[in-house]
Design goal:
The structure holds 2 protein chains of 2 kinds. By secondary structure, chain A is mostly helical. Helices cover 73% and strands 1% of the residues of chain A. In chain A, helix 9 packs antiparallel against helix 12 and helix 10 runs antiparallel to helix 11. The chains are: A mainly alpha, B mainly alpha.
């Protein structure tokens, strides 16, 4: 138990995968010494930092909300001007692009990752298991920019030169995929994100599935259930809280990803959300626009995108926490 | 319920026979489904392995020539020209820049994160619970938000400008929640008997924490630090917004604008020259090797430490 922290990819995996052991309360009546005050001071600093974190991003975005109003949320054009005519900043296509790419990613990574972790735990020979698990955890630490350069330097040219023309040559292909296949697309971004979050997902779900008590599995098998019946009716329901945690963590990584999406989605603001069309996402658009935005009224608008991203992330983590707590309560009963 | 099979209630026998018959009748179908799903699981692991192996293969194939040359580490990057694409220089400034950024951010984030973690582990008060929620949220927050924060606070409010300090600040804020929750978990995993033994011997709570609990939790804390650092080293987005990206000189002072490895990768990839695009594989491979070494050594060290204790 003591070395769980070495096994997990991130600490928040622990947050979902295990219940924290009972905390130690300060013995009542003891005096606070320099040690206790230091800890309290550090915590206060942290409180200030996190408060200032939210405050700065909100504060910096105010001019954009004043200037654009509701258009910022529902508008679909991004037209910076030199100031002679009013500029337009609408975040709708980034919001939809974010949702679309991360949904593609989580569906792909979820299905493949689930099968992979079941296979690692129940199909691979025991000797290979630790080896594969270590590889998976190392891959989870690979920086996202590496997945990005693979997407833009290997995958996108291949789509543009080989896969795209093949798709268009299919009967009816030109009408169904009637979008220019320049290589970069929302779908490609989703696929690169899926590859990127797969190790994270598998690292956690493998650990969670491995923690299912062997007696449960043996009981199911001894009653005559087949391997799949055991996995589907015993293993997965038992580990569902942890699997849910793995999914939320992976989804969180996908929708906040900046560089990989910036490189492969195309960075185009348009209201065409065909998976093969080019698009952008909240985080990647901020990074892509940053250079040219400097000093203009575009900076507050980009901060407003940050506000949306922050709200997304906050809502997401609150819902995840609520669901995990509910599941835990149900499991405890 | 009953002792021997022949004493079974006739109804029980009926139910048992019915269940057995059904199990027999569905056996073929169940076995088929199970076989199919097992096959699909094998397929899944194959599908997962293909792109990941492709990435590693490409990374080593294209990156190895760069990583193995000494000049790659000692030269400044150079802008290639249309006529001479091969003049690329190296990564000396982004290497130093990354070291500086990580160093400065650790200097503040590590003690702060560990302190917060200990506080949360030792107190179950309301503020500690709120902090725990805030930290769980921050761990999952998109990293580019840290960049926006650093730009708004360090670059603009404090008028430092694009600088290594702003980059370290962004990465520090990113590392903080990871460090804190790793520390909290490590401290909570120390058996309570250890702390009670310390207190029972008359040691002050603070002495018990510092001299007994912390040494017992040090494996988890150090591993958490290394994981946080290896995540921060490769983080591009927050650094991209605030460090300025100098190419002409080696900079490492907090107030100077600087360069960093992931920043250089991004610049290379979006360049128009194929040679420069190709160089990004070299930097990426170097980064991946550093991260692998960091996390493997943390793992091995923790495993050995664990063994010694037993």
């Amino acid at each position: 138990m003591a070395d769980t922290s070495t096994k997990s990819v991130t600490a928040s995996a622990e947050h979902y995968a295990t219940t924290l052991p009972e905390g130690r309360n300060r013995p009542s009546g003891s005096v606070r010494g320099p040690y206790e005050w230091t800890l309290i001071a550090l915590s206060v600093i942290f409180g200030l930092v996190s408060f200032w974190f939210v405050g700065t991003i909100l504060f910096k975005s105010i001019p954009a909300f004043k200037q654009q109003g509701f258009y910022l949320l529902v508008g679909n054009a991004w037209n910076p001007t030199d100031g002679t005519t009013p500029s337009q900043y609408g975040a709708l296509s980034m919001i939809i692009g974010t949702v679309e790419t991360s949904l593609i990613a989580i569906v792909l990574a979820g299905v493949v990752g689930m099968g992979t972790s079941l296979a690692i735990n129940f199909l691979l020979p025991a000797r290979l298991r630790t080896f594969v698990a270590t590889i998976v955890e190392l891959l989870a630490a690979v920086p996202s920019v590496v997945y990005g350069i693979w997407g833009v330097l290997v995958l996108a040219p291949w789509v543009a030169s080989t896969f795209g023309p093949w798709l268009t040559a299919l009967p009816g292909g030109a009408t169904i995929f009637g979008v220019s296949l320049a290589g970069k697309s929302l779908l490609l971004a989703g696929i690169v994100l899926a590859v990127m979050i797969l190790p994270t997902f598998v690292a956690i779900s493998r650990e969670v599935i491995g923690a299912v008590p062997a007696e449960l599995i043996e009981a199911s098998l001894s009653l005559g259930a087949t391997r799949w019946q055991t996995l589907w009716r015993t293993v997965i329901p038992t580990s569902r809280i942890g699997l849910f945690g793995a999914t939320t963590l992976a989804l969180g990584r996908a929708f906040g990803e900046t560089i990989a999406v910036a490189l492969v989605a195309g960075g185009v603001v348009q209201m065409n959300f065909h998976p093969l069309a080019q698009g952008t996402s909240l985080a990647s658009f901020i990074a892509g626009q940053w250079g040219e935005a400097e000093g203009s009224d575009q900076v507050p608008a980009l901060y407003a995108l940050g506000v949306f991203l922050m709200l997304f992330s906050l809502a997401f983590s609150l819902i995840a926490n609520r669901l995990v707590a509910k599941q835990r309560k149900a499991a405890a009963l | 319920m009953s002792a021997s099979p022949d004493l079974l209630d006739p109804v029980d026998t009926l139910i048992r026979d019915h269940l057995r018959e059904r199990a027999q009748a569905t056996l073929k179908r169940r076995q088929f489904v199970s076989g199919l799903m097992t096959f699909l699981c094998w397929t899944a692991i194959a599908i997962a392995a293909v792109p990941l192996i492709m990435i590693l293969f490409e990374l080593f194939k294209k990156g190895l020539p760069y990583v193995t040359s000494w000049a790659f580490y000692t030269q400044l990057p150079q802008q290639p020209t249309l006529f001479d694409q091969s003049h690329l220089g190296g990564i000396s400034n982004s290497l130093i820049g990354s070291l500086a950024i990580i160093g400065y951010s650790c200097l503040v984030a590590v003690p702060l994160g560990i302190g917060i973690g200990i506080y949360m582990a030792e107190n179950d008060t309301k503020p500690a619970q709120i902090m725990r929620t805030v930290i769980a949220t921050m761990v999952g927050a998109p990293s580019i938000l840290m960049g926006l924060f650093a730009f708004g606070f360090i670059v603009e409010q404090l008028h430092v400008g694009f600088s290594i300090l702003a980059g370290s600040f962004a990465l520090g804020v990113m590392m903080l929640p990871v460090l804190a929750s790793a520390t909290e978990l490590a401290v909570r995993n120390v058996p309570p008997t250890l702390r009670e033994a310390g207190l029972a011997l008359g040691a002050k709570p603070s002495t018990t924490s510092l001299k007994i609990v912390l040494p017992a939790a040090i494996t988890g804390i150090v591993t958490g630090c290394i994981l946080a650092i290896s995540r921060a080293v490769g983080e591009t987005a927050p650094v991209l917004l605030v460090i300025g990206g100098t190419v002409s000189a080696i900079t490492y002072l907090p107030s100077q604008p600087g360069n960093a490895l992931p920043y250089q990768i991004y610049q290379d990839v979006i360049s128009n020259y194929d040679s420069q695009k190709n160089q990004s594989w070299g930097i990426a491979l170097f980064l991946v090797i550093v991260i692998f070494i960091l996390s493997l050594s943390a793992r091995i060290w923790a495993a050995r430490k664990q063994k010694v204790r037993r």
